[in-house]
Amino acid sequence: MPAGLNAGGDGALSRKDFATDQDVRWCPGCGDYAILAAVQRLMPEIGVPRENLVFISGIGCSSRFPYYMNTYGMHSIHGRAPSIASGLKVSNPELDVWIITGDGDALSIGGNHLIHLLRRNVNSQLLLFNNQIYGLTKGQYSPTSEAGKVTKSTPYGSLDHPFNPAHVALGADASFIARTMDRDPKHLKNTLKEAHTHKGSSFVEIYQNCNIFNDGAFLAFTEKSSKPMTTLYVEHGMPMTFDKGKQGLRLNGLTPEVIDLTDGYWSVEDCLVHDATDKALAFILTNLFWQPDLPRPFGVFYQIERPTYEDLLHEQLNEVTERRSNGDLRELLRTGDTWSIGA
Amino acid sequence: MPAGLNAGGDGALSRKDFATDQDVRWCPGCGDYAILAAVQRLMPEIGVPRENLVFISGIGCSSRFPYYMNTYGMHSIHGRAPSIASGLKVSNPELDVWIITGDGDALSIGGNHLIHLLRRNVNSQLLLFNNQIYGLTKGQYSPTSEAGKVTKSTPYGSLDHPFNPAHVALGADASFIARTMDRDPKHLKNTLKEAHTHKGSSFVEIYQNCNIFNDGAFLAFTEKSSKPMTTLYVEHGMPMTFDKGKQGLRLNGLTPEVIDLTDGYWSVEDCLVHDATDKALAFILTNLFWQPDLPRPFGVFYQIERPTYEDLLHEQLNEVTERRSNGDLRELLRTGDTWSIGA
Amino acid sequence: MAETIDTAVQAIPEATILFAGDSGDGMQLTGSQFTLATAFAQNDLATLPDFPAEIRAPAGTTYGVSGFQLHFGSVNIRTPGDDVDLLVAMNPAALKVNLHRVRPQGTIIVNSNAFVKRDLDLAKYESNPLEDGSLERYRLIKVELTRLTRETLKDSGLNHKEIDRSKNMFALGLALWLYSRPTQPAIDWISQKFGKKPKILDANLLLLKKGFHYGETTEDFVVRYEVSPAKLKDGMYRAIRGSQSLAWGLIAAGYKSGLSLFYGTYPITPASDILHELSRHKNFNVVTVQAEDEIAAVGATLGASFAGSLGVTGTSGPGVALKTETIGLAVMTELPMVIVDVQRGGPSTGLPTKTEQSDLLQALYGRNGEAPMPVLAASTPGDCFFIAYEACRIAVKYMTPVMMLSDGYLANGSEPWLIPDPDDLADFPVTFATTLNGEADGEKVFLPYARDKETLARPWALPGTRGLQHRLGGLEKQHETGNVSYDPDNHQFMIKLRAEKVERVAQEIPPTEVNGVATGEILIVGWGSTRGSIEAAVERARMKGQSVGSTHLVFIHPLPPDLQEVMDRFETILVPELNNGQLIRVLRERYTGNFQPLNKIKGLPFRASEIEAALDELLTTVTP
Amino acid sequence: MAETIDTAVQAIPEATILFAGDSGDGMQLTGSQFTLATAFAQNDLATLPDFPAEIRAPAGTTYGVSGFQLHFGSVNIRTPGDDVDLLVAMNPAALKVNLHRVRPQGTIIVNSNAFVKRDLDLAKYESNPLEDGSLERYRLIKVELTRLTRETLKDSGLNHKEIDRSKNMFALGLALWLYSRPTQPAIDWISQKFGKKPKILDANLLLLKKGFHYGETTEDFVVRYEVSPAKLKDGMYRAIRGSQSLAWGLIAAGYKSGLSLFYGTYPITPASDILHELSRHKNFNVVTVQAEDEIAAVGATLGASFAGSLGVTGTSGPGVALKTETIGLAVMTELPMVIVDVQRGGPSTGLPTKTEQSDLLQALYGRNGEAPMPVLAASTPGDCFFIAYEACRIAVKYMTPVMMLSDGYLANGSEPWLIPDPDDLADFPVTFATTLNGEADGEKVFLPYARDKETLARPWALPGTRGLQHRLGGLEKQHETGNVSYDPDNHQFMIKLRAEKVERVAQEIPPTEVNGVATGEILIVGWGSTRGSIEAAVERARMKGQSVGSTHLVFIHPLPPDLQEVMDRFETILVPELNNGQLIRVLRERYTGNFQPLNKIKGLPFRASEIEAALDELLTTVTP
Ligand SMILES: Cc1ncc(C[n+]2csc(CCOP(=O)(O)OP(=O)(O)O)c2C)c(N)n1
Ligand SMILES: Cc1ncc(C[n+]2csc(CCOP(=O)(O)OP(=O)(O)O)c2C)c(N)n1
Ligand code: SF4
Ligand code: SF4
Ligand SMILES: [Mg+2]
Ligand SMILES: [Mg+2]
User: Full-prediction pTM beyond 0.90?
Assistant: First the structure.
């Protein structure tokens, strides 16, 4: 094979090997840069050959992503990436499929494809860049924008009650649900790695700052000053504490409440221990959403194993083919009632 | 007004007043007849003038429904009824809007409109006729069909993991979620009545038998013999017992388990008491879905009050109009920088 | 048992018969069994099933009537027949709905037991037509089907419902006798269908025989008919329905190309049967995906094409309307894909179970921006096989989405089909890009939008191919590199290039054939399912010595290069369409000629006589 | 302060200037402020903003260049200008991208401080054009914008970023001086914009003046220009952009009809601004709904129409592709609805921020089945107001969906607009059905599909109206009763009836006007945003004594009844379009004439000179 081809070849690849010659065209300061960096850093670690990686996106600022990855990719049309990715993965399960989408792309026009991808459990990683705004169209509110938001299209404030993305995913019976943010590169990269390790549709919501049209939407969770009190990092098997261990979360019946771990009354033992396989717990946890005095959880909320769509499909295909042996066209055309005329 | 008009007029109306001159064209024995009967019986009770009732449906056997109601109606296109109903309700909040849909119409092609209707909380009743099959197109599996289902389009069994409709609704943050069935006319009618009383989007899943393409899908819940053990009727504020009070449901941590109320060890006091305002409980309850040894719940699972989309919209409209007074076109055209030429 | 009378036998060249009854009466089954026997009798034939929109409409209602029409003969049969020679009516509604189709002096067999008050009312008959003499223009034969059936089966051990449901077998037996058809095919079929239900099996066989004998024994029939074998080309034949043959054409395309066939779809009448058929043949490396809607279906199909499958998505008009945006993406990404549109009555939901040709302009122009693509149309049930194959071949060869048009009549209609030899199908070579094909500042690079000289196709480089990583998308592409380009000149260049590529498909079009006279007064230009009626009409015209020819378009975009020249050989061009005039718009725009439309928009195919009439009228007007 | 030199003043009839710089340089603002001053100077004008697809492309890159072109004069101005007289380039990239537009000997003002290594590299300049003599064909004026700005504001208390960002004010001031424009409008605007930010306010005002004085004091400028007021019709004027005027046309329709305006949409470039504008005017009883997608948007709009609102849905090509199925439902339910398509570069995502006319055929034919609807096109930014109004009026009068076509150039371009008097707008009467209108077996009944004699419109009966309960739907409707009907003859009748209804809209079309010679050699037939360029070209042709006229179509379906007759008065018909030839297909299909296409598909409007050239060529070829 010609020299050039080795370019895509083996040997330890570095982050740079995953960059393309295309200039990255996001606004300076956009959170998308951090996500791109994290993904490019992760790629060499997961050790999948570049040619087996495919990034499929819809339309939006975030959906420009594939142009910047030296892998196969498609910048498709608005909201349809999950469908295109499904057909791709089913046709060639060897491929490592990543879906890049935004809060408008995935939850507005693409909502239906999203929930059907998740229920079918097509093995892929879906990265939802949630900036709570329509960036590319220059700043209208999105299905994740807080109610009352003043935008170009809602000068008097938006009326729609926002989606809780994690709940939408849970309602669709996703097998992997996580949340992370652009401003925490380490957690971002690790979460993506776990998503990649998971076999099935991995739903990863990434809080991403749009510094042009919705700057600071997640400031409370990213600013050094407030972050400790507002963010709760959960890990399977670990007690739920935050604020540098000074506070914890416990369940009172089905209601989560914050406990003070400093005054000696409550201790870590009293804290809820995260079980990522417990669907009910995942629901209660992700219900911590714009709730005063309660932290916002980050991490892998839910993860279970169930068969992937493409595995089931190919098992069936093979099973039928074995039972009936490879189809013979000449035979097929003559099955059933035939008759001859002449000789 | 001409005599004829009084036809639509006041005075006690009866079930018959809501029938049209069109022959009902469902297959003999179809569960849809029972639902039509229940709705026609309910109408006089809720006392809404016929002319203020609008039934909007998509496409499917179930979506033929509006033709049989002597009210306003639209048999629209596949999956779009929630959108059409939203525009209708927003334009005239006086109207009492009912959405009629099927498991394919609402959860397959119409999934996105469904979840957006629910999150916006447009005041309307959505009746999802779930027969776990595509009836009108003569028997392909639907998003609620059990995995492995053999149908016209899946001779070797379907592969898709089915939706749990109540979870989809919960994931979309619906304000009213209930389940009932065609074979229990009384519960059906009462549930529809509660849905109508609720202000907001009321999501009602109705188990409906398609005796042609999916006969007996819900037999376990409808047959006298098995029904007591398989069905759990929940009511707000009441303990969860079934099997004529012989069995009950309790929570072990977050896990529901059946308890025997006859052997004296457990009593009704130990049973879970239904609280329709508790979202987490609603999730756990509706998670009882194709789970061996656990009953299937029916009734109103979840109900909370939150502002409806059309109320917010008209409040904003009025508020702005009051503040800026009714728009004057001549003024509008002259706002901003103008200059005169000549005279 | 009564002695048998031997009825006079009359040899006839062709006949049209129509079985009609309730959806529950099994008329479709009766019809297809009669068709099978007729095929074995080696007649040429064409069928037209006609069922209600309702799944199971209430018994006895006119809108619940299901019918199956069959036209067969020793001569060439091209249509399901204009006027009916024999109507079998299982109840008053069936008679009411179909009487107008029966020719004067035609035979009508009715189940007289069904002509009772309730059913007469349901059919909205004031008086009983069997008694009020309203049928005297026909040869009426009353058979107590219900009673005879019950008697025959009283000891069968079947319950009432089962017994009454089987009376169609009696009718079938009688019809087979009347037209001297073999009973063996039906017997074989029944035997293997009900093999596991001995009671039902015996009952059906018994009734079939009874019905046959009834013909022999009753004196109602003055004559019995014989239709000798048709002079068909030698070879092995089978009866085939359009949806089956279309599905098989796709399978053949996968088979010959070595590509895995990916069929992404969402059920819709009358396209669903393609899915049903394909899903039965997974051992041909056929993947069928029933998506959540048409948009997801075409999206998944495009993704599959990107991955190297033979991507096909099938639907009907309303589904195509939903797919157009994604088809535009296929035009831009230049990936091979076939979109099958099995047309039905429109607009909107329209007449979902009826046939129509009203999606042609949508196929040609129904996309945003300049998004040309090849459009092919099948013309008979068996032809669907070859057009499906050709559509796939062109999609891959030219790296373009291709629209294939069928319709409800083709999908449900059937005809005897000379089984093709797979080796005779056109070659279907596929080459995937594996090496770098360009250079940029001294470095070898991959140019995903480089062009093949002959076809202008771009290379098909599959994900998984080392070193050929590239990104596709819906934004305008730079020539060769395929990078996003906002350059004005590049945009115009690419628009023209994509158009030119599709025009090049004309290379694939064989010289236009004219059926009938090669030059003369009237040329009929048709497309799609109207072929049979048109050619039947031309045949009649020629018998009348009229100077008429016809040509049938397979390629509607691009059009045959020699079409103008062919049309120039005629004074008038008649364009019959089952729409309000769509192909004629295209012809008028691109060609010169005296174009005359003939439109029928009734959800039904043309009768040959309707086209014949149009010819007669034109000829009297044009020739003084 | 240096003494002022009084520069020679030269009076010119017209000028074209172009401000270009980084997205961050505020060129759009500079341009619109200059436009405002020009409007006050009572010149006629046309503008062409041109921004990158990226929200904020990296500074200094060529694809990050944002431009604003303005053509103004004392004569009639119909286009944003062909060749640029003055280019203001804030950095090398801006110069690189726009130099080719500048006429020989044209003036170029550059920010010389920006021509440093880094920026030159970003713009891919090998050598510095300011020094390598490559600009000698132009009058180059180097201004140290950055340095002058920093000096001016060193004590302003603003930080570096803020200071550098305001250098466009200096440029504005200089440009205003060069063309003798009033500074007051800009001063007023700045004052109220930054009223709350005194520091910024003072800085901007200061820079504006400094820029103005710079002109007076520097010796770089040999002449200064004066453009006297244009002879415009008397009256009150304003500058208006197409999206604003379109939105106001819809508001006017609601206002005059008394209907509540319901605008259901989903954001998409370049249509979003209509939503943005409408959402600011809720006190006109305007409801705006941002739906989850285009399908939901058109669905909600149709529901609103059913309820009695004036339903309008706006989008661009890809959005129309998604709406077609629902538009078909509107055709079948015969509810009034307006679909606005602000066209952009296609196919697929294409060139989203560029202009094009390539959705015409989709508008005419992009639906399943026979689903005709009126199609209207606006031709100037101000015209959008009147066409939007007319589209609404026709939709309601004929109870039909109507497609209105605009495009990116109209949406973003602006022109001086003679403010119309609301009383002069056509009447917009609306009647809702309130009484039973038919009889069935002796009973009075409501017939939702009864017809108005003149328009063939069916009655609009709103839910909530006692006694008129009825059911609409997508299945074929029975004439008058509106019940579902599978009757073949009814289907054909209804198809023809719906088509005839749309044809009747021709009653609304005024006699075709011809601009230029009334009969002669070449008639230009145009539609949409090409009007300005076409009429400018015709004017030039007439000055050259060429026998050329033009007519511009507002109604593309139905077409004007007198169009053939008008075209017959010319030997050749030239059809310029910003697509690959769409209207010309329609003309060729329906009319006779020697039709010649002129197509430009570069995402940019025609230059008058391009059409002029086509005329010259045709005339030399047609006249021997
Ligand atoms: C069919 C269609 N409708 C609308 C658009 C316009 N559009 C492009 S991106 C977008 C939303 C972008 O928001 P999001 O998905 O959150 O991505 P972001 O830009 O915020 O990263 C919209 C409405 C389109 N391109 N195609
Ligand atoms: C756009 C479009 N796609 C597909 C169809 C075909 N279709 C009609 S109804 C239906 C599904 C019906 O299933 P469901 O919604 O469960 O209703 P049911 O008939 O079971 O009551 C489908 C696929 C259609 N009419 N329109
Ligand atoms: S608009 Fe927002 S989301 Fe888009 S590139 Fe700019 S900062 Fe990022
Ligand atoms: S097909 Fe099934 S759902 Fe449809 S009408 Fe018949 S029984 Fe009912
Ligand atoms: Mg976003
Ligand atoms: Mg169903």
Answer: yes
